[in-house]
Amino acid sequence: MLKIAWSPLYCHPLPAGHRFPMEKYNILPEQLLYEGTVQGDNFFSPDLLDDQWILNTHKSYYVEKLKSLSLSKSEIRKTGFPLSEGLVQREIHIMQGSVQAALFALEFGIAMNIAGGTHHAFSDRGEGFCLLNDIAITANYLLDNRLAKKILVVDLDVHQGNGTAEIFQYEERVFTFSMHGAGNYPMQKEKSDLDLGLPDRIDDNSYLKLLEDNLEPLIDRFEPEFIIYQSGVDVLASDKLGRLGLSIQGCKERDKKVILSAKRHQIPIMCCMGGGYSEKISQIVEAHANTYRLAQEIFF
Fold first, then answer.
1. CA 84, 87, 91, 92 torsion: positive or negative?
2. What tens digit of pLDDT does each residue of 124-149 get?
3. Domains by residue range for the chain, with CATH
4. Is 120 annotated as catalytic?
5. From the centroid of its chain, how far is CA 17?
6. Cβ contact 2:294 at 8 Å
7. pLDDT band at 209, cuts 50/70/90?
C-alpha cells in the first residue's frame, strides 16, 4: 500500500500575499482522493519527531533558538517565513512525516510525504523556506538505526540542495546528487557529491537525457540501499522562481525515471515534495499529483 504523510498542520497560515503556496498541501490530497489514485487509508498523520533525531542532524544551539523563537531578525529573514510557534511545530511534524514515510518505504518499496524536501536547512541555520532538513534527518535516522548502510539523495528541485550538501559533506555513507538551475538560488552553492548545474530554459529532452546519463551509472557505482527523492516541481517552465523550461509531461517523465530506477534495482524510495511556485495552483498540483500516480502505477 502506498503510504502518504499528511497533516492539517502542513497548511499553517501565512500572511496574505506570501509567495509560498501553502494551499497546495490541502488541494493535492483532495485531488488524489477525488480521482481515485488513493483512498483515505493511504494517508497517515505524523506526530512530532523526537528531539534526539533532530539533534542528530542539527546543532543544539540552533534547535534551541528555533524552539524558543529567539532567532535574530536576520536569521528569520533568511528562512523566508515569519517565525512562530505554530510554524516550528509544523516543521517538526514534517520531519516525522519523512521518517515514518521512510519506514513505510522499507516495508512497501515506496512512500511519500506531501510536504518535506526542506533541503536548504543547514546544520546550524534555516534558509529558503526551510527550518529543519527532513532529508538529512531521515537519512541519519536510517543510518543510526542500521536500516540502511548507504543512502542516495536524488534532489531534482530547481534549487541546489545546499543544506543537505553541507550536512553530509564528510559522510561517505550518503551520496548527495543535486541537479539544479546553475544561475538560480542559492547563488553561492555548496559542494554536493554530484552537482549538475543546468542552463536557463533547458527543455524536456535535454533535461531527461542528462538525468538518464547520470542516474543509472550513479546507482550502479554507489549501490545505495535506500533513495530519498526530492521531487520539486519548480522545474516547470511556468514556475515564477524556477527559470527552467520543463513541461508538465517532462516533469512526469523525470519522476518516472527516478521511480522506475528504484523499482528496477529493488531500492526502497521515500519521495518528498519540495518546491513549486507556478502562477496557477492547478499546474503545481497536477505536477505533484503525477508523482503519486506513478508511485501507484509502478509499485502497486
1. positive
2. 999 999 999 999 999 999 999 999 99
3. 3-299 (3.40.800.20)
4. yes
5. 24
6. no
7. very high
